[in-house]
């Protein structure tokens, strides 16, 4: 997927001092089944008449397991199980009792963290240090956080009467498989709803391991149902007449289809969609710190992040210094085996996504932007893409407007704060932005003018379960995380 080269800026600057010995994470303890079906009504089921597909390790292009693809009948079975569990058990259970189950799931995620992290990396391609240090701990933290809210809903909304909605249909993406499952499942359980959830077709394995945890935790049958499949399976969940609430994280295009599908049905809907985040660097910013924030903002998880800082807005008088330091920092990034603990940038999630990234990068070159990629060795097999930065980008370039969802950064300049605001808001998306400055008054003034749901100040891509997350415009609506994350799963009177 890329050319092999031997000399880098790192070699020229530091010689052998920066040569890392391989540090592969063992997979000997990982015990995956050859095939996975679904988890419905407290049982693992494999419906033989259904179609199936393979989930692929994107770093090796080798299959990991066969996955059943749920049809409408299987989805209906899952929804009926969820409805029965809601009517007979879960909605009637005191919040303090629901909290015990949610807390137990969180503890078991912690106990099984090593296995979950390795499988997440094998199935999704992200570096093991990200799965180990970010995804899995945050997933557990969300279950812990919402376990604490389960018996306090009356305090969350003083003066109001709250009650659960019923059956929640949830569809999650492939960039943070277990974490997105936690974002969806934990608040739904805490508020007394039951669940039918579909993981992404390219990353279903940690969802099935979560099903094992849920089963071992003793959750009543039917409270959480996990069905595998492709787009048709997700559509069957969204369109099912007995689903009361739909939650979707994914592309804006699919989000629009879902919004049209639920219009007029009375179903409650939350959408967390695409983004084209602006990372704004002012001339009074701590530049070395900002460069680290730029790298974390766009190269974390190979850029497979809806809130990635994929547009870098740099004040004109420091542009040259920032780009020079950024290129030097990019030349130290290690691209390669996601299971190696030294790896900074792993494999692109799928061939389809790799081709999408390559096509948009080619469009940037065709439209006259200047491309830079550090000299680095890419593995012979797998879907690997070198970290890329484009300069001489204008707001009309495709790479400045379209979500690339890969390790590709577009750089634009500005002269005044007003110009920075105008360029940052010049996008159909409105999910996240970052602001770098040493003046708090400037930071708050700029943040108030940006049309984005999440604004980071002098940092980027920092998450906490107590902090709400979500966007505006074509980035969707509704919030996940924090007290705000309870609202989509409650009727508040």
What's the layout of helices and strands?
Elements: H1 9-14, E1 35-36, E2 38-40, E3 43-45, E4 52-57, E5 62-68, H2 72-88, H3 95-111, H4 113-124, H5 128-149, H6 153-156, E6 162-164, E7 167-171, H7 177-190, E8 194-198, H8 205-216, E9 224-226, H9 231-239, E10 245-249, H10 252-262, E11 268-272, E12 278-281, H11 287-299, E13 311-315, H12 319-330, H13 351-366, E14 370-372, E15 388-391, H14 398-401, E16 408-414, H15 417-424, E17 429-430, E18 432-436, H16 440-449, E19 454-457, E20 472-473, E21 476-477, E22 490-492
Parallel strand pairs: 1-5, 7-8, 7-10, 8-9, 10-11, 12-13, 12-18, 13-16, 15-16, 18-19
Antiparallel strand pairs: 2-3, 4-5, 6-22, 11-21, 14-15, 17-20
Helix pairs in contact: 2-9, 3-5, 4-5, 5-7, 11-12
Explain how this protein is built:
By secondary structure, the protein is of the alpha/beta class. The chain contains 16 helices and 22 strands. It folds into 2 domains: 257 residues, Aldehyde Dehydrogenase, Chain A, domain 1; 188 residues, Aldehyde Dehydrogenase, Chain A, domain 2, CATH 3.40.309.10. Helices cover 38% and strands 18% of the residues. The strands form 6 sheets. A 7-stranded mixed beta sheet has the order 14-15-16-13-12-18-19, with helices on both faces. A 6-stranded mixed beta sheet has the order 9-8-7-10-11-21, sandwiched between helices. The protein is globular, with a radius of gyration of 23 Å. The N terminus is likely disordered.
Name the features:
single chain, Aldehyde Dehydrogenase, Chain A, domain 1, 6-stranded mixed beta sheet, 2 domains, alpha/beta, about 500 residues, Aldehyde Dehydrogenase, Chain A, domain 2
């Amino acid at each position: 997927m890329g050319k092999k080269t031997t000399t880098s800026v790192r070699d020229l600057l530091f010689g052998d001092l920066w040569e890392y010995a391989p540090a592969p994470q063992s997979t000997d303890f990982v015990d995956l089944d050859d095939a996975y079906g679904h988890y419905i009504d407290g049982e693992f089921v494999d419906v033989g008449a259904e179609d199936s597909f393979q989930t692929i390790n994107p770093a090796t292009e080798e299959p990991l397991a066969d996955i059943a693809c749920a049809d409408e009948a299987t989805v209906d079975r899952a929804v009926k199980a969820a409805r029965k569990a809601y009517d007979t058990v879960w909605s009637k259970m005191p919040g303090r009792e629901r909290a015990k189950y949610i807390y137990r799931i969180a503890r078991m995620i912690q106990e099984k963290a090593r296995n979950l992290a390795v499988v997440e990396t094998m199935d999704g391609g992200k570096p093991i240090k990200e799965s180990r240090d970010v995804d899995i701990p945050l997933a557990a933290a969300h279950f812990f956080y919402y376990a604490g809210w389960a018996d306090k809903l009356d305090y969350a909304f003083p003066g109001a009467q709250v009650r659960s909605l019923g059956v929640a249909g949830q569809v999650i993406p492939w960039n943070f498989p277990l974490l997105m499952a936690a974002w969806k499942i934990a608040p739904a359980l805490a508020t007394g709803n039951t669940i039918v959830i579909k993981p992404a077709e390219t990353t279903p394995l940690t969802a099935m391991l979560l099903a094992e945890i849920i089963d071992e935790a003793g959750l009543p049958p039917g409270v959480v149902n996990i069905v595998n499949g492709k787009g048709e399976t997700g559509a069957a969940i969204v369109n099912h007449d007995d689903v009361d609430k739909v939650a979707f994280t994914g592309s804006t295009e699919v989000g629009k289809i879902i919004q049209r599908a639920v219009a007029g049905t009375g179903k409650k809907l939350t959408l967390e969609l695409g983004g084209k985040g602006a990372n704004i660097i002012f001339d009074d910013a701590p530049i070395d710190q900002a460069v680290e924030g730029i790298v974390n903002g766009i190269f974390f998880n190979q850029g497979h992040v809806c809130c990635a800082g994929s547009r870098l807005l740099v004040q004109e008088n420091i542009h040259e210094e920032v780009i020079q330091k950024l290129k030097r920092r990019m030349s130290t990034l290690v691209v390669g085996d996601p299971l190696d603990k030294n790896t900074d940038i792993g494999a692109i999630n799928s061939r389809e996504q790799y081709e999408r990234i390559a096509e948009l990068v080619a469009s940037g070159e065709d439209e006259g932007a200047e491309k830079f990629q550090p000299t680095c060795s890419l593995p012979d097999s797998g879907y690997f893409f070198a970290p890329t930065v484009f300069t001489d980008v204008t707001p009309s370039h495709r790479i400045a407007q379209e979500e690339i969802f890969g390790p590709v950064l577009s750089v634009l300049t500005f002269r005044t704060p007003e110009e920075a605001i105008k360029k940052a808001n010049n996008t159909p998306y409105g999910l996240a932005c970052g602001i770098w400055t040493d003046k708090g008054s400037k930071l708050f003034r700029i943040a108030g003018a940006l049309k984005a749901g999440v604004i980071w100040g002098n940092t980027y891509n920092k998450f906490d379960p107590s902090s709400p997350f979500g966007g505006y415009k074509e980035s969707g609506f509704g919030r996940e995380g924090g007290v705000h994350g309870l609202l989509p799963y409650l009727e508040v009177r």
